[in-house]
Amino acid sequence: MGSSANVDAGDRTTNCDGVSVDKGVDFANYFCTYGFLYHQKKMLCDRVRMDAYFNAIFDNKEHFHGKTVLDVGTGSGILAIWSAQAGAKKVYAVEATKMSEHARELVKANNLQDVVEVIEVDVIISEWMGYFLLRESMFDSVICARDRWLKPTGVMYPSHARMWVAPIRSGLGDKNMSDYESTMNDWHGFLDETKTYYGVDMSVLTKPFCEEQRKYYLQTSLWNNLHPHQIIGTPATIKEIDCLTVSINEILNVTANFSSWITVEKTRLCGFAGWFDVHFRGSRENPARHEIELTTAPSIDNGTHWGQQVFLLHPLRVSEGDNMIVSFSMNRSKENHRLMEVELGCEMKQSSGKMVGPITKKFYIE
């Protein structure tokens, strides 16, 4: 995977929000993860991910045979290797971390080594998707590569993406509240002991400690692989992306207002889940012979390493036919543009006509 597009200014880098970020911190946040083989292994063991890319390439060899391919953020080099095996004439694999050394050895071990200077390409293939699609802001790099190198008749793999949100039931909220309360009880015990044994009153720090722990336990979205039965209402598409035409400005903010009908009789609404899917369709002028979908939706037995992002609310009793009216807004964090901040609001019109809410809560995707 490659780094996102930034404007350099000495030791600072300006992200697409126009916010100045310490370059060392920004790079460290990114490179400390993707430069290690254990993280690459985690992605390489994700069968849903691997099968989707493998099938997309080898079921559509005509898009690769004799063509020039750019793999943005190649990581281990697996997509570049598959592209070459599918008949690509030239493959340019870009990787900014030390993983490039391993990718180079892997390419050599598979007798596919070649050094090419790329000016323009027929296909850009990249696995740029982060948690809830846009975390990490990786897609910026792909868009910049597309605008600089892809031919007007070129193809993006994947070519389209969608983001989804749906109401859920879950026991995670009860556990997190219990953990938060236990942490605060432990803090108060710590205050008593520190004052008794060391003569220092640290209670002035209770408010910031409480805010810190509330953010961690109650406002940070959770990674989870949900079961389809935990979805209790109609899912809504909150963002559709055409990878061939979308601009960076169009993915800086994701906002949506939608309705979701509760489809389960007498249950608890515990929050909302977000996931995404991507599609390998080729282009309008050059469509894929076999369209492939990679989905991270709740699954019975084929969950992905992306899972779903869970946004927990105080539980509400709901019943079939109730209508959830939801507002959703997601923006990049000003402190670290690879992370996301979400504001979610909802009110419920019960089947009896009674209105409940509105409820508004801020979350962090970290």
UniProtKB/TrEMBL annotation:
Record has Transmembrane helix as a keyword: no
Taxonomy, superkingdom: Eukaryota
Gene Ontology molecular function, alphabetical: histone methyltransferase activity; protein-arginine omega-N asymmetric methyltransferase activity
Leader peptide range in chain numbering: none
Record Pfam families: PrmA, PRMT_C
Keywords in alphabetical order: Methyltransferase, S-adenosyl-L-methionine, Transferase
Single GO cellular component term: nucleus
Sequence ranges assigned to domain Protein arginine N-methyltransferase in this UniProt record: 178-349
Record's keyword annotation contains Ion transport: no
Stated name of the protein: Protein arginine N-methyltransferase PRMT10
Native organism: Tetracentron sinense
